[in-house]
Specification:
Bound molecules: adenosine-5'-triphosphate
Radius of gyration: 25 Å
Largest sheet: 7 strands, mixed
CATH architecture of the largest domain: 2-Layer Sandwich
Helix content: 25-40%
Structural class: alpha+beta
Distance between the termini: 27 Å
Shape: globular
C-alpha cells in the first residue's frame, strides 16, 4: 500500500535540485573550478530525460503529422539576420543598477526595490541587448561580428523558401526545430528555469492570412494537450492570454502555457500569431521574395505564422517538479518521481536478486532482450529493497527482478513503480507485457 503526502512548495524546489545533483540529472557546470553562473551540465540520467522531452515533442510535432517538417539550422549567424528580425534593435530587457550595492537587475522584475540590499536608489532603466556577440574568424573587428542565436525561430524563416522549394509543402504547413539558444539574461535564476544557454523546441506554422486566427486557436489546444498526454496534472497548467500592452514587437496575439512553479505561475511556452512580420522583414532586407504562389487561386501572398515556442530545459524542470512525490510503502518513506514512462530516464531496471554467479547470465539475457525496445538500467548492488527505492527515486516505471525461481520457471517479477505491485511474467512474454503497460503494445 502506498500513501502520498503533498510536498510543500517551499521544500519542493530544494528537494528537486538536490535530487538532480545527487542522482546525476543536472550538475552545476565547471563545478571543479567553482562553477560558472547559470550554466548546467546534464548528467547520465538528465541527458536521457532531456532527450525524451525533445523526442516526445518531435514525435507529436513532426513524426505524427504530414504538415510539419524538421530543420536543424546553424547557431552562429551574421548580423544581417538579426538586423532584419528586429533583434538588434528590440531584443532587450530594461536594465537598472542599484546605486547603493551596484548589483544589476531587470527593472520589470523588481518593482523599484533592489532585491539585494533593499535600496530604492536605482538608475533609470536602459535597454540591454540580450544577444551574445562574438567574432567569426581570426579578426576581431566589426566586419567579423557574429551572434549566437537567441531563438531557433529565425532559422525557419530564413529557410522558408528552401523548404518550400524542396518539399512540395504548401500552406498550411510548419517547420520545426529543436536546439540550443543563448540569451545574456541579466538575472538568470531558479535553477534551469532561466539560464543563459538553454534548449528550445519551436515550430513556425505558415498559413493563409485569413486562416491565422483559426490556426492560433488550434495550436493553443494542441499544445496544452501535449503536456496533459505526458502526465502533467491539469491543475498545474493554465493558458494565459497576453494583454495588448504585453505583446512583443511582432505579435498579433500571444498566449502562454503556464505551469505552477513553486514560486507561482510562470511561462513554459509562448504561442504567438506573428502575422507576416518575419517573412516580410527578411524579404525586404535580403531582396529575396518570401511568399507563396497558390496555383489554385492564382494568388501570391506572404503567409502568416503561428508559432508555438517552448523551452526543452524549462519543460524538463516542470515535469520533474510535477512528478516529485514522497509516500510511504509498508511504513517506510520513499521518494518517487511519477514520470510518464516516455520521459523517465530509464523505462526498465533489470535487477538480479543476488550477486550469485548463477543469476547473472539469465539477468544479462533478460537485459539484452529488453535493450532494443527500452532504455534499461542494470543494478546488482545492495539489497533488492534499496534498489527498488533507487529506481523509484529516478522515476523508473518498471523493475524486472531475476531470482532463483527464474532458473526453474523461466519467469521474472515485474514491479510497478506507482503501485509497487509485483507480478510474475514469463521471460518470453516480457517485451510484450511491458509494451502493453506503455499503452502502445
Ligand atoms: P521570458 O519572458 O521568461 O524571458 P520569453 O517570453 O522571452 O521568456 P520566448 O522568447 O517566448 O520566451 O521563448 C520561448 C520559450 O523558450 C520560453 O517559453 C521558455 O520556455 C524558453 N526560454 C526562453 N528564455 C529562456 C531562458 N533564459 N532559459 C530557459 N528557457 C528559456
Amino acid at each position: 500500500m502506498t500513501e502520498t503526502a503533498a510536498v510543500p512548495a517551499d521544500d519542493l524546489m530544494e528537494k528537486v535540485v538536490r535530487l538532480c545533483r545527487t542522482r546525476g540529472f543536472i550538475f552545476p557546470s565547471a563545478e571543479i573550478y567553482g562553477g560558472f553562473r547559470s550554466t548546467y551540465d546534464y548528467g547520465p540520467l538528465g541527458v536521457n530525460m532531456l532527450r525524451n522531452v525533445k523526442n516526445a515533442w518531435w514525435r507529436a510535432m513532426v513524426q505524427q503529422r504530414v504538415d510539419v517538417v524538421g530543420l536543424d539550422a546553424a547557431i552562429l549567424g551574421p548580423p544581417a539576420v538579426w538586423e532584419a528580425s528586429g533583434h538588434l534593435a528590440t531584443f532587450t530587457d530594461p536594465l537598472v543598477d542599484c546605486k547603493n550595492c551596484h548589483e544589476r537587475w531587470r527593472a520589470d522584475k523588481i518593482e523599484g526595490v533592489c532585491p539585494n540590499c533593499g535600496s530604492r536608489d536605482l538608475t533609470e532603466a536602459r535597454a540591454f541587448n540580450l544577444m551574445f556577440k562574438t567574432h567569426a574568424g581570426p579578426v576581431e573587428d566589426e566586419g567579423h561580428v557574429a551572434y549566437l542565436r537567441p531563438e531557433t525561430a529565425q532559422g525557419m524563416f530564413t529557410n522558408f523558401a528552401n523548404v518550400l522549394g524542396t518539399t512540395r509543402k504548401k500552406p498550411p504547413f510548419g517547420i520545426a526545430q529543436v536546439g540550443k539558444s543563448f540569451r545574456n539574461e541579466i538575472t538568470p535564476q531558479n535553477f534551469v528555469f532561466r539560464t543563459r544557454e538553454f534548449e528550445q523546441m519551436e515550430m513556425e506554422y505558415f498559413v493563409p492570412p485569413d486562416e491565422a486566427p483559426k490556426w492560433f486557436d488550434y495550436w493553443l489546444a494542441e499544445r496544452m494537450q501535449w503536456y496533459l498526454d505526458l502526465g502533467m496534472p491539469a491543475e498545474k497548467l493554465r493558458l494565459r492570454h497576453h494583454e495588448p500592452s504585453e505583446l512583443s514587437h511582432y505579435s498579433r496575439g500571444t498566449a502562454d502555457v503556464e505551469f505552477e512553479f513553486p514560486w507561482g505561475w510562470d511561462e513554459l511556452e509562448g504561442i504567438a500569431n506573428r502575422g507576416d512580420y518575419d517573412l516580410s522583414a527578411h524579404a525586404a532586407a535580403s531582396g529575396v521574395a518570401q511568399d507563396y504562389f497558390d496555383p489554385q487561386t492564382n494568388e501570391r501572398y506572404t503567409p502568416y505564422v503561428i508559432e508555438p515556442a517552448a523551452g526543452a530545459t524549462r519543460t524538463m524542470m516542470a515535469f520533474l517538479l510535477a512528478a516529485y512525490t514522497e509516500d510511504e510503502v509498508g511504513g517506510e518513506a520513499r521518494t518517487v518521481l511519477r514520470l510518464h514512462w516516455r520521459l523517465a530516464p530509464y523505462q526498465v531496471a533489470v535487477l538480479p536478486l543476488s550477486k550469485k554467479d548463477t543469476l547473472e547470465p539469465v539477468a544479462r539475457q533478460v537485459l539484452a532482450s529488453l535493450q532494443p525496445h527500452f532504455m534499461c538500467d542494470y543494478d546488482v548492488t545492495q539489497s533488492i529493497g534499496r534498489r527498488y527505492r533507487r529506481q523509484d527515486e529516478v522515476g523508473t516505471p518498471w523493475c524486472v527482478t531475476v531470482d532463483f525461481d527464474s532458473l526453474e520457471d523461466d519467469a521474472v517479477t515485474v514491479r510497478d513503480r506507482d503501485t509497487t505491485e509485483q507480478v510474475r511474467v514469463p521471460i518470453a512474454d516480457l517485451v510484450s507485457e511491458l509494451r502493453r503497460r506503455t499503452g502502445e503494445g
